[in-house]
Amino acid sequence: MMILVRYVLPAVVVLAGIVVMALGGEADVEGGAGIVSAGVAIYLANWLVRLGRSGEREREAEDRAREYFDEHGHWPEA
Predict the structure, then answer these.
(1) Of 18, 19, 15, 10, which is closest to residue 38 (Cα–Cα)?
(2) How confident is the model over 12-51, as pLDDT tens digits?
(3) Phi-psi region of 59 (alpha: psi -120 to 50; beta: other; left: phi over 0)
(4) Angle between the N-to-C axes of helices 9-23 and 26-72, in degrees from 0 to 180, rounded to the nearest 10
(5) Which residue in 76, 78, 6 sits closest to 39, CA to CA?
(6) 49-77 pLDDT, tens digit each
(7) From the centroid of its chain, how far is CA 44?
(8) Residue 18: which of 5, 1, 2, 31 has the closest Cα?
(9) What are the DSSP calls for 36-69, one per residue?
């Protein structure tokens, strides 16, 4: 399901924008560019969410390592 949201949805939106630009007139080129921009924005929003979650996992791992250090007096072996 996440693959659809992360990759397929933005690709379909970008493709739809390209089709609009290819088949339309001058005004449709501008509209198609807006649709392509929306597809790129969807992809970048998903990328930012993934980036934020990876940072959260790293903080949680360091918190666990600090708790281990408090209990055992040395840093855990990775």
Answers:
(1) 10
(2) 999 999 999 999 888 899 999 999 999 999 999 999 999 8
(3) alpha
(4) 160
(5) 6
(6) 998 888 888 888 889 999 999 999 888 88
(7) 5
(8) 31
(9) HHHHHHHHHHHHHHHHHHHHHHHHHHHHHHHHHH
Location of structure tokens 């666990």 = 64
Phi–psi pair at 74, nearest 5 degrees: -145, 160
Question: What 8-state DSSP symbol labels residue 78?
Answer: -
Q: Which two tokens stand for residue 40?
A: 């790129």
End-to-end alpha carbon distance in the chain: 33
Q: Are 40 and 76 in contact (CB under 8 A)?
A: no
> Are the C-beta atoms of 59 and 48 separated by less than 8 Å?
no
What is the DSSP code (8-state) at residue 75?
A: P
Q: For the whole model, what pTM was predicted? A: 0.70
